[in-house]
Automatic annotation (TrEMBL):
NCBIfam families: PRK07827.1 (NF005879). PANTHER family: ENOYL-COA HYDRATASE, POLYKETIDE BIOSYNTHESIS ENOYL-COA HYDRATASE PKSH-RELATED. GO terms for molecular function: catalytic activity. It comes from Streptomyces phaeofaciens. Belongs to the enoyl-CoA hydratase/isomerase family. Pfam families: ECH_1 (PF00378). This is Enoyl-CoA hydratase.
Length: 246
């Protein structure tokens, strides 16, 4: 198995972190979560980094949790909070598909953009669990009616719908063209101004972490260890319908 990696490049003060575990469709393994956390820590300490772009290689931004090597729930909560608390804007750039836990990464970012062909789905209910931990950044930032539909059905939805629901800042055929004025604006902004403005914008999200993180982490652990989740994950890995499918 290839060791998951996070690619890193820099251009004019913007550090680009690229999820680069294409053999698992950038699924959130323990190793990938750790590598991304380490890279973000470096960015937070580096005074030459004005902003961070989180992107991916391959056709999938993130396929959700790696069912063969899942991250510890506390570690994943820590990663989401790290993105929210980083004193520099984090911009998500998506040119592919996003599933389950990957949507938590998007919600934790400050600005998110995706190409029009990108697709999204909360697939947790289909394997017998719930989008528990990723709700920490999602619930304060996205439309509750849209979340109710897509949480409960696991339906796939497109980039314009993701933008309407508040999951994306913008969608377009050329995501780099969409992000060009955003990155230009961040480069012109003072580091102190960015840090303090981000603090204002993320206050409600961090209140949700403080209030609900322990409860939702426990819920996630309980659900993933349940009999229904074992059946759902086995069915997914064996590419068949789970026992409850009608």
């Amino acid at each position: 198995m290839t060791t998951p990696a996070v690619g890193r490049t820099r251009a004019r003060g913007v550090e680009t972190l690229s999820l680069d575990a294409t053999d698992t469709r950038n699924a959130l393994s323990a190793a990938l979560v750790g590598a991304l956390s380490d890279a973000l820590t470096d960015c937070g300490k580096d005074p030459d980094v004005r902003a961070v772009v989180l992107t991916h290689t391959g056709g999938t931004f993130c396929a959700g949790a790696d069912l063969r090597d899942p991250p510890d729930p506390d570690a994943f909560v820590g990663l989401l909070r790290q993105i929210v608390e980083l004193p520099k804007p984090v911009v998500a750039r998506v040119t592919g598909h996003v599933r389950a836990g990957g949507l938590g990464l998007l919600a934790a970012c400050d600005i998110t953009a995706a190409s029009t062909p990108s697709t999204f789905a909360f697939t947790e209910v289909r394997i017998g669990v719930a989008p528990a931990v990723i709700s920490l950044p999602l619930l304060p930032r996205t439309d509750p009616r849209a979340l109710a539909r897509y949480y409960l059905t696991g339906e796939r939805f497109d980039a314009p719908e993701a933008a309407r629901a508040g999951l994306l800042t913008a969608a377009g055929d050329d995501v780099d063209a969409v992000l060009a004025p955003v990155l230009d604006g961040l480069r012109k902004s003072a580091p102190q101004g960015l840090a303090e403005t981000k603090r204002l914008l993320t206050a409600r999200v961090l209140e949700t972490f403080d209030r609900d993180a322990a409860e939702l982490t426990a819920l996630s652990a309980r659900l993933f260890s349940s009999a229904q989740a074992r059946e759902g994950m086995t069915a997914f890995l064996e590419r068949r319908d789970p026992a409850w499918a009608l």
